[in-house]
Hints:
Layout: E1 4-7, E2 16-22, E3 27-29, E4 33-40, E5 43-47, E6 50-54, E7 59-62, E8 67-73, E9 77-84, E10 100-101, H1 109-119, H2 124-139, H3 151-162, H4 170-177, H5 181-192, H6 196-213, H7 218-224, H8 230-241, H9 245-251
Helix pairs in contact: 1-2, 3-4, 3-5, 3-6, 6-9
Protein name: AraC family transcriptional regulator
Domain HTH araC/xylS-type: 154-251
Keywords: DNA-binding, Transcription, Transcription regulation
Amino acid sequence: xxxxxxxxxxxxxxxxAVRWSIDELHVGVKDALTIARVExxxxxxxxxxxxxxxxxxxxxxxxxxxxxxDLARVERTTCQVxxxxxxxxxxxxxxxxxxxxxxxxxxxAAFHALHDAVRDGADALTLDVVAAEALASFNRRKxxxxxxxxxxxxxxxxxxxxxxxxxxxxxxxxxxxxTDKYHLCRAFRARIGLPPYAYQLRLRVSRAKNLxxxxxxxxxxxxxxxxxxxxxxxxxxxxxxxxxxxxFARAHER
Length: 254
């Protein structure tokens, strides 16, 4: 069953917010910077090469292209999810931030303030201020150790992100990464959570979602993100998103 997504009203256009509920295991690649707070339910979650036990009140930070994978869930989970346009340079430091902060972790204070303001229906000025403070908190983490990622995997991920719509061979990716394809596949899956081909596929679907939200006709989106025909695009989109491109586009008409 696809997640249930309820848009939340906001007095600002700087970011968007939804209430996101799911009772099944979920695997996804983020198409924007998201800061989520778990409101209900506990689950086991994989991100950035680490397994996290997630409880209500936890803050989850994910950036454009990040993979998140549920490993176990015993009850329905509800999160409040705030999404920013991840194409702005000011969010680069978010990649250095821990993806999980427990409820009592003081590093999450600015994020909790942002979520509280969204929950309480705050005015535009308040929302803009707490959003700025939350984003500024990323830059205060420069002295923290970044999540370790082998250089070969970083190079491979950068290539796939840059050329996600192209037909990339494993040999080409491995050559760019400076390693052999067998070591790359093991390291890539261990760090990213998906093999290179599956990561590229989900990047294509994430980009397709953005184009559909922006109003591009569904019939044109598949080819623009690298699918060779409409049936292939529809099949993969339906499997990953849980609905067809056309229905997704209608649901996001402005």
